[in-house]
Write a structure and sequence with these properties.
Blueprint: H1 2-20, E1 31-36, E2 39-45, H2 50-61, E3 66-74, E4 78-81, E5 103-104, E6 118-121, E7 134-135, E8 139-142, H3 149-161, H4 169-177, E9 190-196, H5 198-205, E10 220-225
Antiparallel strand pairs: 1-2, 1-10, 2-9, 3-4, 3-10, 4-8, 5-7, 6-8, 6-9
Length: 228
């Protein structure tokens, strides 16, 4: 009887140790929906970029991303929004320089690259922003385009000559199949991706624009957290 009790105690101890020392569960990636007149875009944020993730969550909770514009739209490239000045902007007004008075330190992760559908932070150029700090509120969703293998080879040669890293097999496959924009890699913080609604991104990217790439007809959006 004593032996059975000891055996039971040993089994329970092993179970406790396995539970307490097991691999922790991966933190769930927060999801959001961007609602537009063309449909809804669903995105998820990466936990590997916590500063950008938490800032986006904060702004969404505060209602900042409500009734803003996609103020810069370039087909086969990207759609950009989040300028606070776009909320009540007059037709034809140049947008893109609005900010919230702070920036976010770059969280550029080589794991993420500019394939079709990524969500990234806009920023000021290297001349005034060598640390590549991100805008607090402006972001873009990459539409991109498909590159031929020869195009990618030529681009790779130029990038290597300027000290950039070689494309991985994963990058080459993505850029030659689903598409993207490789020259942006390692220059902007990618902090999420579209999980549903790239057809909506494509529709927005097709809208006629003025010479500054602002859609002639306002494309408004609002963002809310998906609670599931």
């Amino acid at each position: 009887m004593k032996m059975n009790k000891l055996a039971l105690l040993f089994i329970c101890t092993c179970i406790f140790v396995n539970i307490s020392t097991g691999v922790p569960k991966k933190k769930r990636e927060p999801k959001f929906q961007i609602v537009t007149e063309f449909g809804t875009i669903k995105i998820k944020l990466y936990n590997e970029t916590p500063l950008h993730r938490d800032n986006f969550i904060k702004l969404t909770k505060e209602g900042f991303y409500s009734d803003l514009l996609f103020h810069r739209v370039i087909q086969k490239f990207m759609i950009q929004g989040g300028d606070p000045d776009s909320k009540n902007a007059e037709p034809g007004k140049q947008l893109g320089s609005g900010d919230l008075g702070y920036t976010i330190p770059a969280e550029i992760n080589p794991k993420f690259f500019h394939r079709r559908g990524v969500l990234a932070a806009a920023r000021m150029g290297d001349q005034v922003n060598p640390e590549k700090k991100s805008s607090a509120s402006q972001f873009y969703i990459l539409q991109g385009r498909v590159f031929r293998s020869g195009e990618l080879d030529s681009l790779q040669t130029k990038l290597l000559a300027s000290g950039k890293v070689k494309f991985s097999e994963e990058q080459r496959k993505a850029y030659t199949t689903i598409g993207g924009y490789p020259t942006l890699d390692n220059n902007y913080t990618i902090f999420g991706e579209v999980i549903e609604g790239m057809d909506v991104v494509d529709k927005i990217a097709q809208q006629p624009t003025d010479p500054r790439n602002r859609p002639l007809k306002d494309v408004r959006f609002s963002i809310s957290k998906i609670k599931k």
